[in-house]
């Protein structure tokens, strides 16, 4: 997908391709069981996100204003003063990945917080501890960095907003537990799903 603007007009072009590889989680974004992905798949995912992160992003996918409001509302902590960004997929979950690896659904791609993509995929893996542990290990250099920690918290805030809207009932307590591990603060339980302000 390519977006550009000329004068007062905004344009968007999409290229589509037919992918024959099976989707890892065709019916849900989160993971319900271990798909038994081989080492080569994990290596391919690391390489793909690494290359994507070096591409020139053209738009900011997750607005700073949303982060400013979402951190206190869904995580119970102040928003970070600075958010380092890289180009990312911005919707990296198990329903958008195939084996062998193809990344599907590129409509949100753009500049995302460092660590957001692996953080979002990790959040969607929490029901399967073996996969969550493997993902955390594969992306430790990103997720354990200060910038990556912020990106992961952005992903968790987004997931907790979805929980407040009634999504991910099984995943909800695990998301809250993980957010508390990262921040030292238990997320608010009665967050309004609609951001105000």
How are the elements arranged and paired?
Blueprint: E1 2-6, E2 9-13, H1 39-54, H2 64-75, E3 85-88, E4 110-113, H3 116-123, H4 129-138, H5 140-143, H6 146-164, H7 172-183
Antiparallel strand pairs: 1-2, 3-4
Please give a structural write-up.
- With 197 residues, the protein is mostly helical.
- The chain has one domain: Aminoglycoside 3'-phosphotransferase, Chain: A, domain 2, CATH 3.90.1200.
- The protein contains seven helices and four strands, in the order ββααββααααα.
- Helix 2 (64-75) crosses helix 6 (146-164), helix 3 (116-123) packs antiparallel against helix 4 and helix 6 (146-164) runs antiparallel to helix 7.
Short note summarizing the structure:
The chain has 197 residues and is mainly alpha-helical. It has helices spanning 39-54, 64-75, 116-123, 129-138, 140-143, 146-164, 172-183; strands at 2-6, 9-13, 85-88, 110-113.
Quick tags:
single chain, 197 residues, mainly alpha, Aminoglycoside 3'-phosphotransferase, Chain: A, domain 2, 7 helices
């Amino acid at each position: 997908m390519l977006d550009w603007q000329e004068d007062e007009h905004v344009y968007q072009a999409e290229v589509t391709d037919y992918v024959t590889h099976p989707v890892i989680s065709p019916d849900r974004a989160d993971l319900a069981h271990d798909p038994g992905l081989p080492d080569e798949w994990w290596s391919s995912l690391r390489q793909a996100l690494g290359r994507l992160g070096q591409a020139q992003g053209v738009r900011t996918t997750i607005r700073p204003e949303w982060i400013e409001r979402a951190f206190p509302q869904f995580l119970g902590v102040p928003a970070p003063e600075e958010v380092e960004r890289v180009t990312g997929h911005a919707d990296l979950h198990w329903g958008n990945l195939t084996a062998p690896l193809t990344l599907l659904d590129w409509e949100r791609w753009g500049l995302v917080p460092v660590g957001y993509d692996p953080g979002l995929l990790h959040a969607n893996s929490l029901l399967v501890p073996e996969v969550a542990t493997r993902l955390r290990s594969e992306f430790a250099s990103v997720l354990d960095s200060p910038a990556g920690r912020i990106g992961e918290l952005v992903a968790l805030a987004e997931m907790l907003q979805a929980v407040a809207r009634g999504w991910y009932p099984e995943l909800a307590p695990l998301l809250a537990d993980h957010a508390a591990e990262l921040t030292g603060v238990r997320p608010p339980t009665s967050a309004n799903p609609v951001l105000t302000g």
